Amino acid sequence: MTNKITIHLAMLAFLVTMPVFASKVSIPTPRKNEPIQPIPLGVEAHTAKVELGKMLFFDPRLSKSGFISCNSCHNLATGGSDNLPTSIGHKWQLGPINSPTVLNARFNLAQFWDGRAKDLKEQAGGPIENPKEMASNHELTDEVLSSISQYVELFRDIYGDDDIDIEEIKDAIAAFEDTLITPNSRFDLWLKGHDEALTAKELEGYQLFKNKGCVGCHNGVAVGGNSFQKLGIVKPYPNDKILGRFNVTGKESDKMVFKVPTLRNIELTAPYFHDARTWDLAEAVKLMGEYELGQDISDEEADKIVAFLKTLTGEQPRIVYPVLPPSTAATPKPDRS
């Protein structure tokens, strides 16, 4: 054994002293002045708070029925949405609008289609007390979590007291959602200088995307989400029942104005538009050309643009499903009424 060790060490010393004749390695040069920027590889996060937020995100006890969780409408296995025209809420009620993805939501200028929540924390409280969604209320949610000793300990460790309140609940959920980013899409790799990341057809699609004017609204890190725009700029949109920003501001000019949706992971989040008008991404592209740009986008052009859009699918969050702490005798029982 001694001889073998000596031989290995001698060989290692020889290898270390050998001259290195490495070939030149080409370092990719990031592309500048593009209207889209790559998603960062990570975000700063409070680890314990994120883990607590993940538990709450998956905990159906935040709902009145004990059946619906945040993940029900923002399914992390299906692009951060539920792939339904409108979400199914308490007592099988249908929501009024298509559920937007929670992935990369940290890059949005506001939350919800109409932007009524300024950030993820404010958004997190809305579905809990919405009678068509989770149908609970903030006081009951506080009571449920306060009855579970393991939750009390976790909140105490993070927030410093035994009194669980809705502000802490929203803060923890938002901390988790803040980490749900999808970096390293093929398009991001191309932006970072990896020419081989995209095909000729995908590059043609991106050029069309720019030339047609799509980047006027779909730009930045999230390829959208950073502005409010009127739906039906050139031609009135056929569904004017959902009024968008008007419901928040009361301004006539805000009728049919919505937060521009992100196009990140768009191939995973059908159906499309706030009213789920189409399940077909190529049709969605053509509809945008018609109503927003006043352009007739051909089938061939739509096919190339869709090829580009599919390169925006990034690395999906790898979530280990949390094991939730058990209820106690003091935990309010589910109510399906």
Describe the structure.
With 337 residues, the protein is mainly α. The chain has 2 domains: 132 residues, Cytochrome c-like domain (Cytochrome Bc1 Complex, Chain D, domain 2, Orthogonal Bundle); 127 residues, Cytochrome c-like domain (Cytochrome Bc1 Complex, Chain D, domain 2, Orthogonal Bundle). It has 12 helices and 2 strands. Strands 1-2 form a two-stranded antiparallel ribbon. Helix 9 packs across helix 12 and helix 11 crosses helix 12. The longest helix has 16 residues.
Give short descriptive properties of this protein.
single chain, 337 residues, Cytochrome Bc1 Complex, Chain D, domain 2, 2 domains, 2 strands, globular
C-alpha-based Rg, rounded: 24 Å
Q: Alpha-carbon distance between the termini?
A: 75 Å
Oligomer: single chain
Helix content: 25-40%
The class by helix and strand makeup works out as: mainly alpha
Beta content comes to: under 5%
The number of helical segments is 12
CATH-derived architecture of the largest domain: Orthogonal Bundle
Tell me the layout of helices and strands:
Layout: H1 2-17, H2 47-58, H3 70-73, H4 120-129, H5 138-146, H6 149-159, H7 166-177, H8 186-191, H9 200-211, E1 228-230, H10 246-249, E2 257-259, H11 281-293, H12 299-309
Antiparallel strand pairs: 1-2
Helix pairs in contact: 2-7, 4-7, 9-12, 11-12
TL;DR?
By secondary structure, the protein is mainly α. Helix content is 36%, strand content 2%.
